[in-house]
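Build the 3D complex.
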Amino acid sequence: MDLATYGSTWQEPRPAWREVGRFFARYLAFTRMSFLELLAYRLRYYTGVVTYLLHVSVYYFIWSAIFEHRGGSIAGFRFQEMVTYIAVGWVTRAFYFNNIDWDMAEDIIEGRIAAELTRPVDYQVVQYASALGEALFRFLLFALPISVVICAVFPVRPPSSAASGAAFVASLLLSLLIFSGINFIVGVAAVHLKSIMGLIRAKQFIMQFMSGLLIPLPMFPDLAERILETLPFAGMAHYPLQIYLGKIHGAQVGWALTVQALWAVALFIIGSALWRDSTRRMTIQGG
Amino acid sequence: MRQLSIFFAYFAQYAKRRLAYKGDFFFEILTGLLGTVSTLAFILSLFYLTRVDAIGHWSKEQVLFVYGFTYIPFGLFNVLSLNLYHFSQRYIIEGRFDRILVRPLGTLPQVIFESFRLQSLHEVVVGLAIITICARAMGAPLAFADYLLIGLMAFGGFGVLLGVFLILVSVSFWFEDRIGIAPPVYNLIMFGRYPIDIYHGVIQFILKWVIPFAFIGFFPSARFITSGGEFGGDLRIAFWLTPLVGSVVLFVAFCVWTLGVRRYSSTGS
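Done.
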């Protein structure tokens, strides 16, 4: 080509921050999309408030009966603390929950994945971005109303201090990353299995059980507790709630947040590797 | 009798389809079992991994008996329930119901049996296993006659479950179910898996008189978890009433459904 044409294709080198800006703008579009999509179906979330109220209620009554019969405290938890534990545990679940695994399975089964792979965006980051949008929606229109209702019905205590409240928020954001990371990895399995329903159910079971949502981890035998604390699931309920209730402070909080952050990063990396490997196989097969 | 032959026809179709993919079927039982085990995780780890050994004045074995018992009616219910969850969406909104109406067969059996999940019967097996173990642990192992009685009570509980959800589903004959009223009621089942006297009076009232989920687990177990004096008065009456409650709820559901179908076909929606 001649100099004139070549000259017209010359572009100013872009400053780094603008590249970053473009990166975020691209993926935030997916955040916005997911938020708006959910907004359109918000009516269904109103009954969700009742559902969560029922969950908190049944565990409230069970623990109430347990403590009434037993009195005192179990593994350092008094009844009043258990009430806060249950309520805050479920409200935060309402916040970080998403169905990335299910959505990915649908994308794969319905063959949309081929189109997705040709897009100039990273599929994994797109999923995370959508999860962020969903979390935003859930925070504003789901978790907030639920917490209002639950706090009106049950004697829920606020965070033990302003510092623990702030650390709690940080912990929650990390929970979101961990949850999305686990879901993404489960979603990748849909490339290889015909149906991941069983896997999803197993994941729900493992999460509810090992995260400490239903039974505080300190109530388990020592060895079990220590093992569970190192797993990513503890980042879903155990760590945020321990921080909230002020059962760990100072350096321990820093340690908890670090464990969560490490898992968030590790899950992203694992998910990325698994995804790249799985889709490479797909494109080779020309699918 | 015609309905019965339809049932067998559907079942034969279903069985043929299922057995063609044997691997799939066993896989689904496996994953179903996993799901069932997950619902046991909480209560089992509560009683066997922590220091908790009672809920209220009910011992481990008593609570587990009630909880385990609920798997029997629930498993039976799950065999037929899949289409009910999607009824509003699949049949009304997407118009599949019109296809059912034009057939010279009853609408209710068609909808119920169009999605049969035989693998859900594994829950019945799990339930029977749990109550057998608990009864033995309580020092009152179950005799053959007890199992017959349990079977009767389980059908009562099954009737309550099926009836309640049929009524819920029939609502979509009158109103478009945009908000999803089934999930909260479905979660109410959780309450029926434990002895109901741990709940607030209002909730107990609802579970006994409004949405009678007290009859899917607690009341039908009453005779087997209490001894002598404890099993008296109201509790004893409630126990024996279980099959009746199930039948009544099922009957009401059938009436509501029939009215709903009539309305649906008359408005020509």
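The longest helix of chain B spans residues 233-267.
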